[in-house]
Write a structure and sequence with these properties.
Length: 147
């Protein structure tokens, strides 16, 4: 008789999200983006703002969805996430009309800082110090030559 091999606890997290989670996250992301773009949300902090929903990460049981949001054109992403959290019951209700899941996931909104990080890396790569180091490397000098 063969015993089934059991994976170690926490092994699932190391592999990343399943295809099911990725598909569900993308469905929620698209539907949320459409709902927000309609402009039906009755919140003064959200009216007239262009918002991007960059990613939605769904839990393995599909009961929780972390939605990463940012204001298009810059602005305070944390304040935007707080404003969307205030109206999450409305968004969840609208989402129930757009997608069909056995259970509608509980939504949490988090500021998407990936754009800020990308901009900081871009600034760093275009800084004079990095340009100077790149010029030095292209001329054939190495750190060992400098010693």
């Amino acid at each position: 008789m063969h015993k089934k091999s059991r994976s170690k606890p926490g092994h699932r997290e190391m592999r990343g999200p399943s295809q099911r989670q990725l598909r569900a996250g993308e469905l929620v992301r698209r539907a949320l983006a459409e709902i927000i773009a309609r402009g039906d949300i009755q919140d003064p902090e959200l009216s007239g703002r262009v918002i991007t929903v960059s990613e939605v990460r769904v839990s393995p049981d599909l009961r929780h969805a972390a939605c990463f949001v940012a204001p298009l054109g810059g602005g305070d992403a944390a304040a935007l996430a707080r404003a969307l959290t205030r109206v999450k019951a409305y968004l969840r209700g609208q989402l129930a009309h757009e997608v069909t899941f056995k259970f509608m996931p509980d939504l949490t909104f988090e500021p998407d800082t990936s754009f800020d990080r990308a901009e900081a890396v871009d600034r760093l790569l275009h800084s004079p110090a990095v340009a100077r180091d790149l010029d030095r490397d292209e001329s054939g000098e190495t750190e060992a030559d400098e010693d």
